[in-house]
Amino acid sequence: MTRAILAGLTEFALTALVIGLVILAVLVPLALSQPDPLEVLRLFVLGPFGTIRHMGNILEAATPTMMTGLAATIIFRAGMFNLGVEGSFFLGGLAAAATAVLLPLTGLIATPAAILIGALVGSLACIVPGYLRVRFGASEMVNSLVLNFAFLFAGVYFLNYVLRDPNAGALMSYKLPGDFTLDRLLQGTRLHTGVIIAFVACLLGGIWLYGTRSGLNVRIVGWSPGFASHLGLASSKLLMQAQIAGGLIAGMAGAIEVLGLYSRFSWTGLPGHGWTGITVAILARENPFLVIPAALFLAYLQVGGDMLARNLDVPSEIVGLVTAAIMLAVTAAAIFRHPAFLRLIRDIKGKEAGEEQGA
Amino acid sequence: MIEFFSAIADPAVFATVLRVMTPLLLAALGVLISDRAGVLNIGMEGIMLSGALIGVLVSAATANPFLGLFAALIGGGLLGALMAFFINGLGTQFIITGIALNMAALAATTLGLFLATGDKGMSGALKSGVLPNIDIPLLGGVPILGPLLSGHHMLTYLAILAVPAVAIMLARTPFGLHIRAVGSDPKAAAAAGISRNRVQLYALTLSGVLGGAAGAYLSMGYVSWFAQNMTAGRGFIALAAEVMGMGTAWGTFAAAAVLGIAETVAITMQTKGLPSELMQMIPYIVPAVMLTVYAARRQAKARKIS
């Protein structure tokens, strides 16, 4: 057991090393173009830990991506490259706003009802491509990619013709009634109770995936469809379960984002948290428990980038470059499947396996 | 129906269809080449965006739009080659590579625009060039046909000429054969001595060159400036067009034309104050339906055989 943990730590150390190098590779040339290069590095790396408020900003930024990361993790674990998380997030936010504007709900049930409806409607964007794949064998990747935009424009139509407040100037919904909100947790930030939901969701997701029979079955289907059918598992049903679960979580994430941060719904483009969620899932090696630190880490980069933008006139887009580079680096088989590294991991683990055999 | 055809025959409407179709067609042909080689180019959106910025920056710096176009082609090709290096050299998945490229391109183009102009939104301050329209001699004077076929953007003609070129390349040249071999059965191709890595490198580079051309058209033809995220999902529509085209150049051409007409109708509706959002959905719903129907028919056929 200790050896397994040691092997895990070795892989983590390599990941951390690679990520550190990637950040330096992007940041150092940028820093050198500025009058005070060291200040750029200091602000980006240490700035987010400077004050409680900034740390609150990290949690705030990680709230949606923890949940979209969890959604993507569950979907990927079932072996599907369904990219509908982005569409689900958008639809979930829209549906929550629609619930708030259109339904005469008040009091304590208002927010949970909006989140539930957001989750249900949002899940469509993951369920449709998943179903078309399971039922007809159509590529879920291409379908989810194009349908995300179809759901976006359907949503914008709905916003424009049903929810739009004609007196608001720009294209945005009526004000969401006061009962439809999540409480703020920290003064000076927009951190809200949604972050607790996100933490709990990731923990429950991890327990489900590693601790229950249906979680195990989903992992088997994703890992080896052939083996799953030999075991007599209902593969189609399990695949759909994972798509539905992922879609519900992503839709819920969108609903929580809208209720927690905004007083009106005004998304007219895909907000991008679904894509970040995919990065989070990849960085977390598709492990729900690791989704939490992965999302926090990307949020930390985001806050660092925002601080650069505010204080030094360095565009925060630099973070997009860093994130993309990290995404490639941590999936590079040339690094993480390198024979030398695999041998090292096997040496660390291997003796234990031998001992077990001997005993 | 007659109304529809007479509307299309109207030179102004026809020109609009060609205008919106050109970037889709160029990019979709690029996607086609990559797909046939077994590495679907999801990064097309990012390559187009990069091509659009490179074209504007280089044409502004050199005061020569052709140098801008040339640089966009080179830049697109290099990005395609970079994808191939990551996929086959470093062993990343092609889907993740494409997603990462799109993410990086959105960030890098905004950053590049900011460094060049101090503005993150638009390149209005730069005096960038526009690629010319071409009047075809003799044809221009012919009634009805002349105004329809002559006087379009040079990249529009290039896009249309690229259709038979890609079709012939894929069907009748050794390189096309290698692409199809690697795409349909990499192991058999390897046994025949065809290097997958090299073929995919060339295919993605070519795909990137076409994407660069599509991007250059957007910023030096469709409009005369670069704006943040100006591709606005066109790379994904191109992906959809290729899927609708069922993996052939002529099919991709037909799909790009259909999607171009749909977008033209959407633009027309928008100017008349009609709900254009529903029309904007068409370029995304039609490919999903076609893909599903195609897959369902293939599945049914497979069942019949077994």
From TrEMBL, chain A:
Naturally occurring in which organism (per UniProt): Devosia insulae DS-56
Membrane topology of the entry: Multi-pass membrane protein
Keywords: Cell membrane, Membrane, Transmembrane, Transmembrane helix
The keyword Transmembrane belongs to this UniProt entry's keyword annotation: yes
Transmembrane segments: 12-32, 52-76, 88-107, 113-132, 144-163, 191-210, 244-262, 318-336
Pfam families recorded: BPD_transp_2 (PF02653)
Cellular compartment(s): Cell membrane
Keyword Chloroplast found: no
Protein name, entry field: ABC transporter permease
Superkingdom of origin: Bacteria
PANTHER family, A to Z: ABC TRANSPORTER, PERMEASE PROTEIN, GUANOSINE ABC TRANSPORTER PERMEASE PROTEIN NUPP
GO-annotated molecular function: transmembrane transporter activity
CDD domains the UniProt entry points to: TM_PBP1_transp_TpRbsC_like
Main location: membrane
GO CC annotations on file: plasma membrane
TrEMBL record, chain B:
Location in or out of the cell: Cell membrane
GO terms, molecular function: transmembrane transporter activity
Membrane topology: Multi-pass membrane protein
Protein name as catalogued: ABC transporter permease
Presence of keyword Ribosomal protein: no
GO cellular component terms attached to this protein's record: plasma membrane
Coiled coil: none
Pfam families: BPD_transp_2
Keywords assigned by UniProt, alphabetized: Cell membrane, Membrane, Transmembrane, Transmembrane helix
Transmembrane feature ranges: 12-32, 39-60, 66-87, 94-118, 130-149, 156-179, 199-223, 235-258, 278-296
Main location: membrane
CDD domains: TM_PBP1_transp_TpRbsC_like
